[in-house]
Amino acid sequence: MTEDVLLQGCLHKDAAAQQEFYHRYSPKMLSVCYRFAKNREDAEDMLQEGFIRIFSQIHQFQHKGALEGWIRKIIVHTCINMLKKNKKFNENVDIQHAQHLLIREEAVPAIIQAKQVIECIRMLPIGYRTVLNLFAIEGYNHKEIAEMLDIEESTSRSQYTRAKAMLEDILIRKRIMNAQPEKKQGKPDKTFTTADIDQE
Amino acid sequence: MEQDFSRNDLEELLRERTGEYKMYPTERVWNSIYHRLHTRRKWHFIGGSTFALMILAGVFVLMQDNSRPPSKTISKVSDTKKTSPSTLSTHSSLLATWNRVGTTSSTNFKSITRRGNDFLSFGDNPMNSKPALEVYDRAALAENEGVIPSVQTASSFQHADKAPVVSGPVTDNPGSVAEASNRILHLGMTGNDSLLTAKLEVNASALATGKKAIIPASAHSKYSWLFHFQPSVSFRTLKSKAAIKTTNYGFIVFDNNGYDINKLVDQRPSVGFELGTDLLYSLSSRLKLKAGLQFNYSRYTAQATYAAPRPALIALGGPGTGGIPQRAFPSTTSYINDASSTGSTPATWIPDQRAELSAPLGAEFEVLHNQSVSWNVAGTFQPTYILNARAFLLSADYKSYVQDPNLLRRWNMNVAAETFLRFNRGKMQLQVGPQIRYQLMPSFMDSYPIKEHLYDIGFKIGITRTFR
Fold this sequence. Notes:
Structural class of chain B: alpha+beta
Number of helices of chain B: 5
Helix content of chain B: 10-25%
Largest sheet of chain B: 12 strands, antiparallel
Number of helices of chain A: 10
Helix content of chain A: 55-70%
Largest interface: A-B, 44 and 32 residues
Oligomer: heterodimer
Shape of chain B: elongated
Order of helices and strands of chain B: HHEEEEHEEHEEHEEEEEEEEEEEEEE
Radius of gyration of chain B: 36 Å
Strand content of chain A: under 5%
Radius of gyration of chain A: 19 Å
Distance between the termini of chain A: 38 Å
Number of strands of chain A: 0
């Protein structure tokens, strides 16, 4: 079934088309939700709310960009809205100096490749994780992130800087990326190569 | 520069590694989405309609009871003279025939109408209570007009043939109690819906002394309403036609190959409910007929494993069914029967649910009773229409679950049997007891070889209100 046929079916609220649409896009979108959520159950709740919004707003899709991008945007906004309902999230995301996460070696799951990276992201504090997800992966700029999360733009920047440093630390510990062998003055103290990751 | 490169590289790594990553949600998510997108509105409509019907039925019953026209008329002979013509209400259903012996009479008749079961007893003075209707002052009218007052007010009667009749000769001597005592006023009473019939005999002498001799007959109606609700648990049983085959010699043998089809699926019951109303008619003191309307919601679940779409085949037809071809589903099935799955993917429970509207017809029999409680048994046949269903068929190899609404039987027949205790509480009666309901015809068309029969077991709670 082509994308246009699916869209037409969804516009007419055809259950079979909606199910096909859901099964086509839900696996990728659940991984998006999972990066934002506390656990898999929360991620599925986000996915559910997101798809209900998608089906109810599908007539607003104007074919100006990729359908998947439009779906992803709604899913991300749904995740953020659901996170913002959590008081703990609102407290953490606005803290300039979040408490540094103590990572025990045994706490790092033995996973590989993509899932390994995602699990490492999920080890970050929720405020760091959210900003990192939005900036590094979803491609929002700090101004947009500040508006989405109701924080200052500078807060978003500092959150991202700390999140990135912490994630690098976790990735190095897991040997997903290596510390830069030759440090230069004024350079970041850690970097990685994709070749190293592939070897893992 | 290198710092920027490093940063961009990390972001690229994250995008690359996370962008194509897929996670498969459990079936619960789609079920919830589907439910919220489609079934909720339907359920609201069905539930709201059923509830509205129940409310309307309840209001109708209450109105029947409260708005009943006067059902008892008591005649009283008084010496009070009245000169003004009486008023005859158009709401009255009174037909009076007056056979007068003399030419004049000072006897005035007042007809006082009372409602419900407010039977008058000796010593009651109906004049003390506000009469619902004062019919006429016949004597004064007769005197003024000089005619024999034989009055029929049929034009104002809706049911003249059933209207109460007051008859009796009236003496010239208004004070002659002896003569009056020889006369009987017959008073027949009938409700306007002919449900209620009673006769009273009033002794004229007693009336002359201000006392009424009223012998009420039974005023209880043979009709009553029952409203009931039942939380229930739904099960199903499967039978396969393939288990029975005809040999070359024409014998029918059981070819079960050592298995029961119910053991090839993993299923469990779920909670549903029944809501309805019945009209009961008493054939005798112990036997009542019943007919009504009810809504049933039943569901059960089967364990299955979600899988990517794959082909499935539904076996249809076969010997004796006209050779209906099998139906192939190229890529619509998404569930694998868990009993046949390898167990590598976590299983989920797929709900199978029905919303039905039934018209139960049957009878109930009172086995034992005392003043406050009775033990009854009842049974009904229930022609049933499936309003909405989510039903899965097993594929020919029993490995997949497939949905095909076209194979669902929309009309069906259920039978129900129940036993209950009925507690008398004045006008209301409360009944509680278990009920079992079984679907006689298979859920799917005859051409589908696996016969599914549903049955519900529940605890029925009902309130009966008797017409009076």
